[in-house]
Design brief:
mainly beta; 4-stranded mixed beta sheet; elongated
Length: 186
């Protein structure tokens, strides 16, 4: 174990350890990975029963939130960067929920630093409450390609943005700064 300590430290410190490329490949990346994060306005999900304009705690069906995201990438010559994203979600089941499971739609977008969206893909993550009011899950997106013209283009020219796919009413709720968390006050 001790003879591998310098290698382990190099992988941890690089911040871009690859889970995609051969796990035994210890070659350090040629450059940094793109930054990854959740879009603030689209990082929370609250679903109300009935009319969304009520917005009372007693009318909540489900809540969800992007808690954290990690990106691992690998440079290979002038090929596109290959990346894997791990996303941590927290989910809540409200007082009027009708099921012990719920599907939460979300997206992962690759953008240039100036905000131009290069690619956007939609996914679903299912929460299984199993009789509980709160749960969490880590979802892994195994392959994201980040385009580069040539090997002189660094991953820092790109961002990977995660957001919950919201209705206009849900987005408006988030932008108004309103917030219901089922674990508040516990």
């Amino acid at each position: 174990m001790i003879k591998y300590a310098p290698l382990l430290a190099a992988v941890i410190l690089s911040g871009c350890a690859s889970k995609i490329a051969d796990n035994l490949n210890s070659r350090q990346n040629a450059g940094p990975c793109p930054s990854v994060g959740a879009l603030y306005d689209a990082s929370r999900y609250v679903k109300f029963a009935g009319a969304d304009d009520k917005q009372l705690y007693s009318d909540i069906e489900y809540t969800g939130e992007v808690m954290d995201a990690r990106l691992y990438c690998r440079y290979v010559g002038d090929n596109p960067l290959e990346a894997e994203v791990e996303i941590d979600f927290a989910f809540g089941k409200g007082p009027v929920a009708t099921s012990d499971s719920h599907i939460y739609p979300y997206y992962v977008a690759v953008t240039r630093r100036n905000g131009k969206v290069l690619a956007k893909e939609y996914f679903n993550v299912e929460a299984d409450f199993k009789g509980s009011q709160l749960t969490g899950k880590t979802d892994i997106i195994g392959r994201i390609e980040i385009p580069r013209i040539d090997e002189s283009i660094s991953g820092t020219n790109f961002e990977v943005i995660i957001g919950v796919d919201l209705t206009e009413e849900q987005l408006e709720f988030n932008r108004a700064g309103k917030r219901f968390r089922l674990d508040a006050g516990k």
